[in-house]
Amino acid sequence: MLRTALNTPDEFTVTFELVPRQGFDRKQVDPLLDFAQQAKEDGRIKALSITDNPGGNAALAPVAIGTELVRIGIEPLIHFSLKDKNRNQIGSHIYLYQRLRLRSLLVMGGDFPNPGYYGRGKPVYDLDSIQVLRLLKDMENGRYPDRTGTRQKQYPAPDILKGCVVSPFKATEAEQVWQYVKLLHKIRAGADFVVTQVGFDVRKFEELTEFLDEQGIKIPLLANVFIPTLPLARALSVGKIPGILLSEKLAERMEAEAAAGADNARLDRAALMVSCLKKCGYRGVHLGGVNLLFQDIAYVLDRVEQLDREGLPDNADYDFPVPGTWYYFQHRLSDNKEKKAVEPLAPGTVLGTTWMHKLGHTLFFTDQYVTGRLFARFCLFCAKGRYRFNFLLRLEKTIKRQMYDCQMCGECTLSHSAFLCPQWHCPKRLVNGPCGGSNQGRCEVHPDRLCFWVRVYNRLDNRTTLASLVGLPHLPPKDWHREKTSSWVNFFSDQLNQLKEQDE
């Protein structure tokens, strides 16, 4: 089992990514099953992951291939993408996977939907990856809290191995810091193992293991070693694939290899990378690529075994960092010994009026001052009368629409995102940190804009530290029954109900 392999210290776990296509007949499915059968007979691959509508395009559901893998006798690792599922569908899928003995999930937000039938489908993103990991953990503990977190329904507890993803390959400080912060929240929420995003920078791979060591966290890490074709490498090098960076140097190298007819060069490079990562603290690798047959992967694994015996050659060239990349650790040489120092963070680079919003929040939404206590009484008073409530609702909508582009979601999170509204400014409406799709600080969906969470980082207090960001609690899912209602009334009503429950 994948769980056993990941938790066996001396075992280096290998998984491989299968990509179902747009179709369901034998032409689309048989190559995947043939690969699975050969992997089962070979024995070195412990699990086959199955993508879930990759690239935001509709494809055969991973459960279809997953059940076939169970029949073949090799463990499926289901990509659990959240872009197309609300919380009811998420719960339904969890029960379905348990029924079908699909017990390993890789939880991720997923690529933004691409145009399809009559245009682009409406993205869901009802829950983010942190919230789904918490949901799975709560279900394991026999809990299923309601909005207040107090009354609980009892449901069958699933037995699921929960994976999450992280990108250590971001080029800018804001993107990378948020990736590490969100990773720590995912681990806190119950992730059992971590798979990296695709990358080609060895120092970034090493940095992730160093970062977790610094945090005192021991969790199985799988390094994503991706084997691109030349056309895909060209697309990656110009940023056409969300969240993946490939240096021009590597694209040029592959151009030269293609001209020279070096067909196995990309496989040899992958083997060198795997052999290197085995020495960096990774518990295994997650292999993937385009147009790969099982004999290609067998070749890579054979080469890795050879390199383990003989060692990496002195002229091995498998490290391709992107120029200008920001690193969390500075590497400095002193007395011929490499020392690593944390790169000082530099948030709050954009000067603005955030301090005014903070002051207003403190004055009116805390009981620190009499203004907050009076405003709470005023809102609760207005809530008891129809005309008073409508007046308050119009007042809130007018003020917040002008100041924040408020969408009246009913559960305001402005104070958690430097007083920028994720319901308006983030296409995925993420409230607990960014997705992995940004590229050079730019939004996955709107590349002409900065990523919403990069903008948030640039507005933070310049004394903000990683520890202070990690110390913030993650936000629970929104109750969409409250949409278009007063978040002011909801906020103070929740506070009042909490006080009543404490008294009881």
Automatic annotation (TrEMBL):
Superkingdom field: Bacteria
Pathway, per record: Amino-acid biosynthesis; L-methionine biosynthesis via de novo pathway; One-carbon metabolism; tetrahydrofolate interconversion
InterPro entries for this protein: DUF5981 (IPR022026), FAD-linked_oxidoreductase-like (IPR029041), Mehydrof_redctse-like (IPR003171)
UniProt keyword Oxidoreductase present: yes
Gene Ontology terms: biological process: methionine biosynthetic process; tetrahydrofolate interconversion
Name of the protein in its database record: Methylenetetrahydrofolate reductase
Cofactor: FAD
Pfam families the UniProt entry points to: DUF5981 (PF12225), MTHFR (PF02219)
Organismal lineage: Bacteria, Pseudomonadati, Thermodesulfobacteriota, Desulfobulbia, Desulfobulbales
Species annotation: Candidatus Electrothrix marina
Reactions it catalyzes: (6S)-5-methyl-5,6,7,8-tetrahydrofolate + NAD(+) = (6R)-5,10-methylene-5,6,7,8-tetrahydrofolate + NADH + H(+)
Family: Belongs to the methylenetetrahydrofolate reductase family.
The keyword Mitochondrion belongs to this UniProt entry's keyword annotation: no
GO cellular component, one term: cytosol
GO molecular function: FAD binding; methylenetetrahydrofolate reductase (NADH) activity
